[in-house]
Every structure is written in structure tokens, then in C-alpha cells.
Design goal:
GO molecular function: tRNA (cytidine-5-)-methyltransferase activity; tRNA binding
Distance between the termini: 52 Å
EC number: 2.1.1.203
Largest sheet: 10 strands, mixed
Binding site for S-adenosyl-L-methionine: 180-186, 211, 238, 264
Shape: globular
Organism: Cirrhinus molitorella (mud carp)
Biased composition (Polar residues): 752-778
Length: 778
């Protein structure tokens, strides 16, 4: 054969490897081709009509709602003390401006609160991005959403996606596992609830957020980092075999059981047709049949790791009972009373839902129906499993109380479709009670099926092989509340010589233990109490004696430490006792950053805004109390002279040496026009000037709180600033347009340097259930 001409252009190929058709100019951009998709699927309509999940007489309304675009919903983060201020700004300014507005002769419908979400912290609106850009007032609202979303004060999240965390009933002391967490909207809710008490910098509980996709883990990190919590850890594992973790309690190594587990499993996503329009043409019953087994395996692994008395919420964005009630029924049947469906009907007043169904059939993609497992021919046994059918025993079915499941239909409250069930664990799982601490010689075969696989086959679980790949003499839950037996090879209390890790170091697991893919992470190195790095920090900031030095970590073994992070005491315990078991992507909140110029002033580390609310309870020096007017000056001017501050703040600043400082605003209950929540800002006291080290979006957030509105025109070339309480200075406002803040420069440098900031330039990936993190705000 002759050589091919290397310079010859090849036709572009799509993901399937086929030549890609040329696209017209009209097709360019996001959502191209969606207008051509016909929102119709006869098999879908036939299937759900036959199953009768929609009340009689409402099916046409149900299908009509499925064809309508999904309203955008926003949620104000609840754990920050600034939530009430943001809500006040939204209601009194932006929503009022929108209320009487007309665009192209059409009156704009003002956003409305979700009736079932507590404290009016979630709102929905029919405003599209196209409409948002057609009016200057709406453009301001759009910029407000973008800025507040990026600073973590507002989240763009689908309404039904907010339900599972609310049903978990989180308390600050709870240990929480989010099994399939990316992109992280629900994880953010869990963190907020954990920090419901802002006076507690380190809640006793924590959130471990897991996802099987390494790239999506970094999207999860981005969502979590906006909340600046020391109680969140992102890990990368297959949820169906997520390893058991251990922790040290009074010198003994105990198995970690979670108080709350969110099990939002992968699903066919037919409840998301209103936003994922391509589901219309791709939907078939085979999607549910293929996912059913994985959903059971994940749910089984979840209940195995749930503490007795704990709650697990199982949820999908699918309406199909094969993925919903069938999974719940399989769990309940084989739990033999260890699990119970909780009645959550009173937990969210105002939420409209349909109770779970107790009778359903299975249909193949060819349209063949089966009402019972006995009807399924042998040739179909690999596709259709016994657990896909409802229990045949009427008494057993009644005792399950499947009607306690909740199915949200789109036409009832203008939402997406969703399914959720709350499970409470009453006792250890029966296969763990039945087979305690077996030895290898007692196990007849190492190829025994796992509990999840046996559930699918319709058999009672026999000898259980732990899903984390450890040996069979340690059942997954045989040690409910007990220390694992000595000599148990599944618990590496004494690592092999090649696996011995350094003290206070939690690094990635050895490659021979796990097949790890994705980015290589730097280790997590905890500092000791007598580390010399603390001496100048302690003296400079006058840290209180109860400052938890052991909770401080860095991401490097050698050389100068660039950043210092903090985690809670409980997460430190988990990290140090499980370095061989899990792949940690990110944990901790940054509290100090190295500043080489600072060494000459007594401390080489300046405060980081991300961790200011974590650190402040322990800092007793370098604090300047400021007024509302001082906040305006500091955030609108690049390097204001000390004389620009009010007399009180000026006198405090003159007494301090050069270096990093805390700028603290405390609310005045008598001044109702001023913010009614405390504000802490990182700053730098220079020779004759003072500066706030605050990222741009947080800067805009605090300015809005003190009555300064910052608006960028469509070209992005200028800022229009105005104050509600008092006229601001034009010169001050111009400082914002420069955006050359040293903090931002350092932030960009950190982002580019890879794993110390735990961002690797990964492109965000959308989720079937949660949707884009901020599609309205883009």
C-alpha cells in the first residue's frame, strides 16, 4: 500500500467515530439542535400509563408539564450568618424591581419562594438567561446571581434535588456519607446544615463526599470549597464497594459507622426530561433494567455502613418503580426487620407528592410485559431479575409500607420528577448477625456472591464477602460497635514494611492496593504541636491556648510550606487511620498563606480569607474593629491611607506593626440600615496604608451588604456604584475596576500550581440529577 498523504484533512468525527455533519451558523452554541428534538416518546407514555403512577385524569397534564421548560431555582446558603442579609437584599431590592417589569410587552413574573423549603431560603423563577439580558434591571439581577453564586452565598440547584438533605435531619454532631456526591449541590446542603450553629467553628460531625468519577470529584471540590468548611472530605471510590473506614477511640481502632447517609444513586433520569431534552429520544425501559443491579449494590453498601439508629435517604431522579420501589422492597425483604421505611410525610409541609406504589410490572424495550418472575423466560434471566418485581406475599408487602416512599410529579408543583425514601436502621443487617468473624478455613469458596448480588438472585445472603475487597473472615458489619479481631487480615493495623507510613501523614494509598486513576494528589501532612512553624505564628497573632495545632496540615513533605490548612479533630482522626484504604482528593480549609515579605515583620504567614471564620475564635491580636463606612473604604479603594479610616479604626491601626490583620465589623442593633451580622475580613497593615485581602466576588458581596451596588456594563469596562444608605465616592468605586488585588494574583498562581489548591483545570461535568451548578448564572 502507498503512504497516505499526512497533510490531507480528515473529516471531523463525533464521539462515536462517525464523520460529523457540517453545522450551520444557526446551530452554533450551547443547546444546538435542541429545538429540533420532538418532545414525544410513545413507549414512555405507554409505559407510565400502564403503571398508573399518575392519578387518573391527570396524565395529559403530567405530559404537558414534562414538555415545558424547567423553572430556574436558587437556594440561599443557610449556615452562613449572612443568609438573612442576602434574603433581605433579594426581597427588598431585586425581586421588587422585577415585579412590575415588562420585557417585549410581556410582564415579568416575580420569583416565588418554594413553599416547602424552610425560612424562604429557596426560590424559583421562570426567567431565562435570554430574558435576563434584555433589561438593565434584569442584567443587574443576573450579575448579582453570578457574583453570589461564585462566592458561595447562593446555589443554583433544581428544586427536587433539595429534598433529600432536608429529610436526613442533620445535626452538628452527625457523621455523614454522601455516596454519589458530584456535582455537589446536595453536598453543599449537608455542609450548611452541619454548620447551622455559626458559633461553633468545628462541629463534631463531618461530611465525606464520594464519587466514582475522578474528574467529577474536582467539580465536587469546587462546590465544597465555596463554603470554606474544615469538616468536608472528598474521596474517589466506587460507591458499591466504598471501603470501611476506621477511627481511633480511646486508643482502640473502631469501625466507622455513619449517622446519616445520602444514597442518591445513578439512574435513567427520566424525571429530568424538562431540562435534559435528549432523554426524550433516548428513553427506553432497558436503561432501568441495566441500572437496577448497581442501584441495589450501592444501597446495600450504604445500609451496611449505617449506624444502628441512623437514617439513610435513597433517591433517584427517575419515576420508574424498577429503580425506586423495587430497590427499596429488595432491601426491606432481606433486612428481616433491620430496616424500616420512615414516614416523612410531615417533614416538609407544603410539598406535594404521590405515595409509593405496591404493584407494578416489568416491560422489555420491545414492549413485552411480565407481572411476575415466574413468567420470565430463561432467555431473559440475565436482563430481568427477581428483585425487579413486587413481593408476592400480601402480608410481607403490607408490612413494608411502601406507600411511605415519595414520588414527586412535575405537574403538581412545576418541578422535575423525583423519588425519595427514608430508611431507618433498627439493628445490624441479618447476614452480619448470622455469620460473625469467620476464618478463611471456614469459608468454602472465595467466589461467593455478595449480599447485593444475592438479593438480585432472590436468595438469602450466605457468607458475606466485604465489598471493599478484604478477606472473608471479616464480614462487612460483623463488628457493629466492636473492635475488629486481632490478626484479622482485612484490617491492616500493622502494615507491611513497604507500607509503613510516616507519623501524621496521610498520603494516597499504595498503587498495589488499589488501581487509582486520575490526578496524583500530594500527601496530607499534619503538623506536630511543637513544630517550629507555630512559634512566630503563636506570638504574632496571640493564639489562644486552646488552638488545635494538631488539626493543621500542609500538602508537602519537603521545602517551605506554602499554605496551611485546618480540618476538624474528627476528620484528622479519619485521615490518619485510613491512608491505605481511601483516595482523598481534598480536605481542609486554607487558613494561612506564606508571604515572604512578612518574615521581616515577625511572621511569614498571612491570614487567608477562606479560613478567617474558622481561625477568628482563636486570634486575640492583630484585630481592628471597623465601621460600615470603613468597610466601604477598604473594599472600594486599592490601598487607602490609614487616615481614610474613621478615627476609632485609625487609632487602632496606628498601634499595630506592619503585617497581616483582621478587620472586624460588629453589628449595631440600633442601626437597622446597617448589616445585622458580623463581618471578618483579612487585611494588611502597610507603612502608611491599609488593604483588604478579599477575592473579587466576596468583595462585591460585602459591598452589597453595606449598601453599595456594583454594576458592570455589558462590555465589562466600567462599574456604576451607588449607595442606598448614603452616596458613595466615585473615586472609591473606580478602585474595583482595576481588579489587580494581590490576593487575586496569588489565587490565580495557586490555581495554576495544581494539587496544593486541589484544582487541576478539570472541565465541569453536569449531573443528571442536580444539573449544572449555576446554569442560570452563567
Amino acid at each position: 500500500m502507498g503512504r497516505r498523504n499526512k497533510n490531507r484533512q480528515r473529516p471531523q468525527q463525533n464521539r462515536d467515530g462517525r464523520p460529523e455533519a457540517k453545522r450551520s451558523r444557526d446551530d452554533a452554541g450551547w443547546g444546538a439542535g435542541y429545538s429540533e428534538i420532538i418532545k414525544e416518546n410513545k413507549l414512555f407514555e405507554h409505559y407510565y400509563k400502564e403503571l398508573k403512577i399518575v392519578p387518573e385524569g391527570e396524565f395529559e397534564e403530567f405530559m404537558g408539564a414534562m414538555r415545558e421548560p424547567l423553572p430556574a431555582t436558587i437556594r440561599i446558603t443557610g449556615y452562613k450568618s449572612h443568609a438573612k442579609e442576602i434574603l433581605h437584599t433579594l426581597k427588598e431590592k431585586y425581586f421588587k424591581d422585577v415585579q412590575d417589569l415588562e420585557v417585549d410587552g410581556q410582564k415579568i413574573e416575580a420569583p416565588q419562594p418554594l413553599s416547602w423549603y424552610p425560612d424562604e431560603l429557596a426560590w424559583h423563577t421562570n426567567l431565562s438567561r435570554k430574558i435576563l439580558r434584555k433589561s438593565p434591571l434584569l442584567e443587574k439581577f443576573h450579575q448579582f446571581l453570578v457574583s453570589e453564586t461564585e462566592s458561595g452565598n447562593i446555589s443554583r440547584q433544581e428544586a427536587v434535588s433539595m429534598i433529600p438533605p432536608l429529610l436526613l435531619k442533620i445535626e452538628p454532631q452527625h457523621k455523614i456519607l454522601d455516596m454519589c456526591a458530584a456535582p455537589g449541590s446536595k453536598t453543599a446542603q449537608l455542609i450548611e446544615m452541619l454548620h447551622s450553629d455559626m458559633d461553633m467553628p468545628f462541629p463534631e460531625g463531618f461530611v465525606i463526599a464520594n464519587d466514582v468519577d475522578n474528574k467529577r470529584c474536582y467539580l465536587l471540590v469546587h462546590q465544597a470549597k465555596r463554603l470554606n468548611s474544615p469538616c468536608i472530605m472528598v474521596v474517589n471510590h466506587d460507591a458499591s464497594s466504598i471501603p470501611r473506614l476506621h477511627f481511633n477511640q480511646d486508643g482502640n481502632k473502631e469501625v466507622l459507622f455513619y449517622d446519616r447517609i445520602l444514597c442518591d444513586v445513578p439512574c435513567s433520569g427520566d424525571g429530568t426530561m424538562r431540562k435534559n431534552i435528549d432523554v426524550w429520544k433516548k428513553w427506553t425501559t432497558s436503561n432501568s433494567l441495566q441500572l437496577h443491579g448497581l442501584q441495589i449494590r450501592i444501597a446495600v453498601r450504604g445500609v451496611e455502613q449505617l449506624a444502628v439508629g441512623g437514617r439513610m435517604v435513597y433517591s433517584t431522579c427517575s419515576l420508574n418503580p424498577i429503580e425506586d420501589e423495587a430497590v427499596i422492597a429488595a432491601l426491606l425483604e432481606k433486612s428481616e426487620g433491620a430496616l424500616e421505611l420512615a414516614d416523612a410525610s410531615a417533614d416538609l409541609p407544603g410539598l406535594k407528592y404521590m405515595p409509593g406504589i405496591t404493584s407494578w410490572k416489568v416491560m422489555t424495550k420491545e414492549g413485552q410485559w411480565y407481572s411476575d418472575w415466574s413468567e420470565v423466560p430463561q432467555s431473559r434471566h440475565t436482563q430481568i431479575r427477581p428483585t425487579m418485581f413486587p413481593p408476592t406475599d400480601p402480608e410481607k408487602l403490607a408490612n413494608m409500607k411502601l406507600e411511605r416512599c415519595m414520588r414527586i410529579l412535575p405537574h403538581h408543583q412545576n418541578t422535575g420528577g423525583f423519588f425519595v425514601a427514608v430508611l431507618v436502621k433498627k439493628a445490624p443487617m441479618p447476614w452480619n448477625r448470622r455469620f460473625p468473624k469467620l476464618r478463611n478455613k471456614d469459608v468454602s469458596s472465595s467466589s461467593e456472591a455478595t449480599p447485593a448480588e444475592e438479593l438480585q438472585m432472590g436468595e438469602s445472603p450466605a457468607v458475606v464477602l466485604p465489598a471493599d475487597g478484604s478477606s472473608a473472615d471479616a464480614p462487612v458489619e460483623a463488628v457493629e460497635g466492636e473492635t475488629p479481631a486481632e490478626g484479622n487480615p482485612s484490617v491492616p493495623d500493622t502494615p507491611a514494611p513497604s507500607e509503613v507510613k510516616k507519623d501524621n501523614v496521610c498520603g494516597p494509598p499504595p498503587p498495589k492496593k488499589m488501581k487509582l486513576f486520575g490526578f496524583k494528589e500530594d500527601p496530607f501532612v499534619f503538623l506536630t504541636e511543637n513544630d517550629p512553624i507555630f512559634v512566630p505564628i503563636q506570638a504574632f497573632y496571640d493564639l489562644s491556648p486552646d488552638f488545635p495545632k494538631l488539626n493543621v496540615l500542609t500538602r508537602t513533605h519537603e521545602g517551605k510550606k506554602r499554605h496551611l490548612y485546618m480540618v476538624s479533630k474528627e476528620l484528622r482522626n479519619v485521615l490518619l487511620n485510613n491512608s491505605e484504604r481511601m483516595k482523598v482528593i481534598n480536605t481542609g480549609v486554607k487558613v494561612w498563606s506564606r508571604n515572604t515579605d512578612g518574615e521581616q515583620f515577625g511572621c511569614a504567614f498571612r491570614l487567608a480569607q477562606e479560613g478567617i471564620y474558622t481561625l477568628c475564635p482563636y486570634i486575640r491580636a492583630r484585630i481592628i474593629n471597623i465601621s460600615v463606612e470603613d468597610v466601604k473604604v477598604l473594599l472600594t479603594q486599592e490601598n487607602p491611607f490609614l487616615s481614610k479610616l474613621g478615627d476609632d479604626a485609625h487609632n487602632q491601626a496606628k498601634k499595630l506593626e506592619m503585617g497581616s490583620i483582621v478587620l472586624r465589623y460588629l453589628p449595631d442593633p440600633k442601626d437597622l440600615n446597617a448589616p445585622q451580622c458580623p463581618i471578618d475580613l483579612c487585611g494588611w497593615r502597610g507603612k502608611t496604608s491599609i488593604r483588604a485581602f478579599v477575592p473579587r466576588n466576596e468583595r462585591l458581596h460585602y459591598l452589597r451588604m453595606v449598601g453599595v451596588e456594583v454594576f458592570r456594563d455589558k462590555q465589562g469596562k466600567r462599574n456604576d456604584c451607588s449607595t442606598e444608605a448614603q452616596k458613595g465616592s466615585t473615586e472609591d468605586a473606580e478602585g474595583l475596576s482595576q481588579e489587580t488585588d494581590l490576593l487575586e494574583q496569588e489565587g490565580e498562581e495557586t490555581e495554576q500550581n495544581g494539587s496544593e489548591s486541589n484544582t487541576n483545570g478539570t472541565e465541569p461535568v453536569s449531573s443528571t440529577c442536580d444539573g449544572p451548578a449555576s446554569s442560570l448564572s452563567q
